């Protein structure tokens, strides 16, 4: 209602398109749980010119609404629904109709509840709570009420009522912000509002006070003179006594206009911003070019919206270490706090947004632990709390943009770092940084650093072979270094033999020699069925390179579809496609070997579980869990 009419049912938009149906639906929805008399519907739709068959026409509209919106005559769920909550019902009553549903489903109801709550908080002097609640309420508006509905006299009266409620909520919120010492932030907003309503004395007085407290007395006096002129020319009136007293107080620099620093304001200013960033990685290889790009993109004050950097790359490419290092490097530019959240839990399941938002809200407003219960309300509260802050937020394990919906801060001075195994662009201005594998020299430096040794001289042949097996992936190099620390008697040559033997096992490796299995498996699960089939073909290729023509032939699809499938693999950084040659792809040898093992294991275990043989019980628990998780992901 608070904007264009929109009806959402089971995550699908089912808004009627017919003008009269929209009109009837809006009228019934705004009177939820109450009978709307036939006379009111007639007046709204036709005023004094009803059609000849008015009763039949009205009944037809009710029937069409029931059919279109799948509304029942009772609130009992149908067999088509996925839960047992009472459904909205459109009931016929003597002399009219009533639309019954949970009040929280209507944005206008939530708005009025929040405004009433904010009014109570203001009366109690809880200005921080009031400002947050009323800002939350204002964010529910998406435009003029019923902006795309042809309204008659009954709906017009409702719109006027909602607009007046909105105006009162705005002035209450402005008053709360002034009480909290946010006069600097309010000046621009108040100047815009005054420009829209030059004779609104309440808004003008707030602008004068904000300018005075900001030390801009001359501008405050000029605002008063402009108001006086507008009132005189348009209405033939003088400013009210209250405004005249305010004018004299500004002239006299009266201390009564200064901000009263009560306990509430002091408490707000003393809230300590939180830093939730994980610690920096001990052994971080130098990546000068992507680091410079990331730092430039996150430079505070140079973006028209939240500055966003997406860090992606192949499994074990050091995405998290790189992103966390960047976050620590720029944290001083975001003094209002640094938030961090993983969007996938240890079992590979998405973390509930409600939980993440609760975690964020407690960090941003730890003086008021009471949180909204609903996810939508928490989203709006988070937006209101971040609208005028300079905040850095880091999201890890992001696999699709839907995971970020409602979690992005709203302020232009905020910044976001997204760590993802998939190339994503949360906004048109987002900077996407894909980390490439290290070269041989960089790999040697990193391995030596992990082992606590100085890197000097040319590496021996066995050392070079060991570095090549890791394919320049920092995660693989660190896994090898950790194994060498606990087995110091191993030579590079022995380590090479062991890694090759593990990667060549037909039945799957008995260990994870390069630390790649979890990352490759998670990326594989993100693929569509055609993408999984294509990745299997890639892992079976001796060189790890597959052409579009070859893939099209193996999958029995046209080449343009094969190109699209290869693009999917590239977006998940499982293969690379050369810019000057999009007709083929290449997969790193270590990823190809691990991917081939995982797919073969999955196929074998699936067959065993499908057959239900007793051999299934001999499957190691870890492998059974991985298979069951994979089946859930399908």
TrEMBL record:
InterPro entries: AfsR-DnrI-RedD_regulator, BTAD, OmpR/PhoB-type_DNA-bd, P-loop_NTPase, Sig_transdc_resp-reg_C-effctor, TPR-like_helical_dom_sf, WH-like_DNA-bd_sf
SUPFAM superfamilies found in the cross-reference section: C-terminal effector domain of the bipartite response regulators, P-loop containing nucleoside triphosphate hydrolases, TPR-like
Superkingdom in the source lineage: Bacteria
Gene3D superfamilies hit by this protein: P-loop containing nucleotide triphosphate hydrolases (3.40.50.300), Tetratricopeptide repeat domain (1.25.40.10), Winged helix-like DNA-binding domain superfamily/Winged helix DNA-binding domain (1.10.10.10)
Pfam short name (any one): Trans_reg_C
Signal peptide: none
Gene Ontology biological process terms from the UniProt entry: phosphorelay signal transduction system; regulation of DNA-templated transcription
Span of domain OmpR/PhoB-type: 1-101
GO molecular function, one term: DNA binding
DNA-binding feature ranges: 1-101
UniProt entry keywords in alphabetical sequence: DNA-binding, Transcription, Transcription regulation
Family recorded in the similarity comment: Belongs to the AfsR/DnrI/RedD regulatory family.
The protein, known as: OmpR/PhoB-type domain-containing protein
């Amino acid at each position: 209602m608070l904007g264009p009419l929109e009806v959402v049912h089971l995550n699908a938009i089912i808004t009627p398109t017919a003008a009269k149906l929209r009109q009837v639906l809006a009228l019934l929805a705004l009177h939820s749980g109450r009978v709307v008399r036939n006379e009111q519907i007639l007046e709204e739709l036709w005023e004094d010119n009803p059609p000849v068959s008015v009763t039949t026409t009205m009944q037809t509209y009710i029937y069409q609404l029931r059919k279109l919106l799948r509304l029942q005559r009772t609130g009992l769920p149908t067999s088509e629904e996925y839960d047992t909550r009472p459904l909205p019902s459109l009931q016929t009553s003597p002399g009219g109709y009533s639309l019954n549903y949970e009040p929280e489903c209507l944005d206008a109801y939530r708005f009025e509840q929040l405004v009433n709550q904010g009014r109570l908080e203001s009366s109690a002097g809880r200005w921080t709570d009031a400002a947050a609640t009323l800002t939350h309420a204002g964010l529910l508006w998406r435009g003029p009420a019923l902006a795309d509905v042809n309204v008659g006299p009954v709906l017009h009266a409702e719109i006027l009522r909602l607009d007046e409620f909105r105006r009162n909520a705005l002035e209450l919120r402005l008053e709360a912000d002034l009480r909290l010492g946010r006069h600097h932030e309010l000046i621009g907003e108040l100047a815009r509002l005054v420009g829209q309503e030059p004779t609104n004395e309440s808004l003008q007085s707030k602008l004068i006070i904000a300018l005075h407290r900001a030390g801009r007395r001359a501008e405050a006096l000029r605002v008063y003179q402009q108001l006086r002129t507008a009132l005189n020319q348009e209405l033939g009136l003088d400013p009210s006594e209250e405004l005249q007293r305010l004018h004299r107080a500004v002239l006299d620099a009266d201390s009564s206009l200064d901000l009263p620093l009560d306990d509430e304001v002091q408490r707000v200013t003393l809230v300590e911003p939180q830093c939730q960033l994980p610690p920096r990685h001990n052994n971080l290889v130098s990546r000068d070019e992507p680091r410079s790009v990331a730092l430039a993109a996150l430079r505070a004050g140079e973006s028209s919206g939240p500055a966003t950097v997406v860090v992606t790359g192949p499994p074990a490419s050091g995405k998290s270490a790189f992103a966390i290092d960047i976050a620590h490097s720029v944290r001083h530019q975001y003094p209002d706090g640094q938030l961090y959240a993983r969007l996938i839990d240890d079992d590979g399941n998405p973390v509930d947004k409600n939980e993440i938002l609760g975690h964020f809200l407690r960090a941003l407003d730890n003086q008021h632990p009471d949180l909204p219960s609903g996810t939508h309300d928490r989203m709006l509260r988070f937006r209101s709390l971040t609208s005028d802050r300079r905040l850095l937020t880091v999201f890890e394990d992001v696999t699709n943009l839907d995971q970020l919906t409602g979690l992005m801060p709203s302020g232009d001075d905020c910044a976001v770092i997204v760590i993802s195994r998939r190339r994503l662009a949360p906004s048109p201005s987002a900077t996407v940084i894909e980390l490439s594998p290290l070269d041989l020299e960089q790999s040697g430096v990193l391995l030596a650093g992990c082992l606590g040794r100085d890197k000097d001289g040319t590496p021996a042949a066995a050392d070079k072979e060991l570095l090549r097996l890791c394919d320049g992936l920092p995660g693989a190099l660190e896994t090898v270094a950790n194994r060498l620390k606990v087995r110091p008697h191993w030579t590079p040559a022995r380590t090479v033999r062991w890694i090759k033997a593990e990667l060549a096992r037909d039945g799957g490796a008995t260990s994870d020699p390069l630390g790649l299995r979890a990352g490759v498996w998670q990326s594989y699960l993100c693929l569509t069925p055609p993408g999984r089939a294509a990745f299997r073909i890639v892992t079976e290729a001796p060189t790890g390179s597959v052409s579009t023509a070859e893939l099209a032939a193996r999958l029995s699809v046209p080449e343009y579809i094969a190109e699209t499938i290869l693009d999917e693999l590239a977006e998940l950084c499982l293969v690379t496609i050369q810019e000057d040659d999009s007709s083929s792809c290449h997969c790193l040898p270590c990823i190809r070997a691990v991917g081939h093992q995982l797919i073969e294991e999955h196929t074998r275990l699936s067959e065993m579980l499908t057959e239900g043989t007793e051999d299934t019980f001999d499957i190691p628990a870890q492998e059974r869990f991985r298979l069951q998780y994979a089946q859930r992901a399908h």
